[in-house]
Amino acid sequence: MSNDKSNFGKWSRRDMLRGLAGIPVLGTVWFAGARTTVNAKKERQQLLETLNINASPPPPTGPMAGDPIRLGIIGFGIRGEQLCRALGFATTKWLKDMKEAAEKNPNDSRLKDFLAQENLNIKISAVCDIFDFNAQRVIDSFSTNDHKVKRFLTYKELIHSKEVDAIVIATPDHWHAPIAMEAINAGVHVYVEKPMTHNVSETYALRDTVLSNPKVVLQLGHQHRQTQSFLTAQDIIAKKVLGHVSLITTNTNRNDDNGAWQYEIHPDASPSTIDWNQFIGNAPMVEFNKEHFFRWRKWWAYGSGLSGDLLSHDYDRLNCVLKMGIPDSVVTSGGIYTHRDGRNVPDVLQVNMDYNDFTTGTSQEEGKEKGMTFVYSATLGNQFERPTYLMGHDGTMELGNAVTVYADARSTKYADLIKEKRIDPSDPIYVYDPSVNGTDAVTSATAKYFANKGLLWTYRDGKRVDPTFLHMREWLSCIRNGGTPSCSIKEGFEEAISSHMAGLSYKIGRRIEWDRATEKIIAKPGEDLDAILTENKERVVV
Amino acid sequence: MEDHKYSTGQLYALVALRLFVGWHFLYEGIIKLYSPSWTAKGYLLSASILKPFFGWLASGSMSSVVDVLNIGALVVVGVSFLIGYKTKWASAIGMGLLLLYYLAHPAFPGLPQGPSEGSYWIVNKNLIELAAIWVIMVFPTAWAFGVENLLAKNKTEVTN
Questions:
Q1: Number of compact structural domains in chain A
Q2: Which is deepest, A332, A443, B24, B132, by most CB within 10 Å?
Q3: Which residues of B are less than 8 Å from A106 in CB distance?
Q4: What value of ipTM does the predicted structure carry?
Q5: Domain containing A418: what range?
């Protein structure tokens, strides 16, 4: 029999070395890994404490309890259909298509996501679409055994039918304000697509209408206000992490027919299925034209081109973060270079908005904290992705679904930290990535790669959600429980005026200025800004 | 012991290979272990083939289990190779793990290569490390350098 002692006795020093020498190596590697990680974490924690950025919680929205809200849909084209889905109503065809798509590709979660969406306790009770096919789609898809969706031939009949508490407006731009004002005056709540208005004077008229009907809730369709990263970006500005922001660059890059508004023309379209006179509205009368009807975004008479359609989104994204309001002046240039198909809105547009007195605070001596230019650069002839940058004296923020902040090498605020090598200007000092739990001061090349791949969504309580759903829910919550939605008349007024200034500068070919005291766009003697903006020509010689 | 007749040079080379691979596995595991926000979700979601499988691994309930198993496997393989204990079992785990890494982002022509510091065609570093573990598996060295050396002696003594 042997015992432990005798066993040990069998091992020579050499045996012990050969048996156990791996253990100190193990300890060393473990210690090195742990120390590196823990130290890096401590450094990051200190940096985050210095920056003190808190990802703001989303604005609270209330319960959807009570009687169902009765909704009227005005305009059921591409966007109208998307908005209805965000409200929980998908057409029979879409449901069928998505079911097939999910069967083909189990990773296609569009149907699953749609079905998982919260019930907003609403009833689509009425529709007004001047194309028979679209109106019929709503009736066929959204009617139930209990109620049939009623079709109205004009928006006025729908609004005054007493069948609706609220309406969704997804019409061409030149109908946004007239329909919104009719509804608000009738006490009907409004969700309207962007841009809020089609010309300058109706922007004031709509503001007056909203302000004199305080019980009516207006929400403008800039759904990105619900994106969590924008709320985080607000806090970054508030904490003066970037210092004095002197330049913002934001972009649109598209390179396909759909992105250039070359939408499909429906085979059923004819003067007998489309109420042409109603489509024209306040635009100059022309003969029935299918292209104008389905591709209205290509003409100033019905749409607003890049300035109203897409600049408005980018402008509002930044106005949501910075609350910079209307610019002092705007200069726009561009042209129709790729899509020479008879359109008169530009397909390349560069807008420079100047804010002489705007400030985001400063770390420098007094006198260096004012002034900012917002640059919007767009092309419909290339789709290379260019991120949005907010460029400050102390740092740069890249703003998308994720937020990344870099310190500037010549920053005053971070000068000491950079000198101590605790901040490397080529590495982010802050990253907010909604698809990952928590925030991190530095991210790896891999993480950056995945972020750029677009594996990011807007998240709420760990669940992937559609910002349009959140935006409409906020509107419905304000109708039910009171409060003001995040994109109401103040924001809408600023969006519309700023977009119109950009459009006017393009059409006239000169700098357009804003008189802050009188709240007026400065017109030269004899200039009718509304007529210039909506005249159905690419440029207007004044 | 008598089964393994390596020359001294062969033995040293094989032990060095085992220690280096173990070192790499352990360090990768420890870095992840001490980084609570680390997750394989992005790597799995961006898989270029077998998307349903890797998507399932990255899904809500599975994701955290997968992260724990991944870290656990890395540390276990690392410790085993460094101290020289149960290296055959650890080799199987390590090869399985590397095979999963490889399959999520294989270096096949025509597939996106993802983040990497080199150029690869079919064979990449995951596959090479897999082959290295294969060598470790079929040319064991723990009997000569590792805890198994002591245990084997112990066993011999006890049973005799």
A1: 2
A2: A332
A3: 52
A4: 0.89
A5: 227-262+294-462+494-534
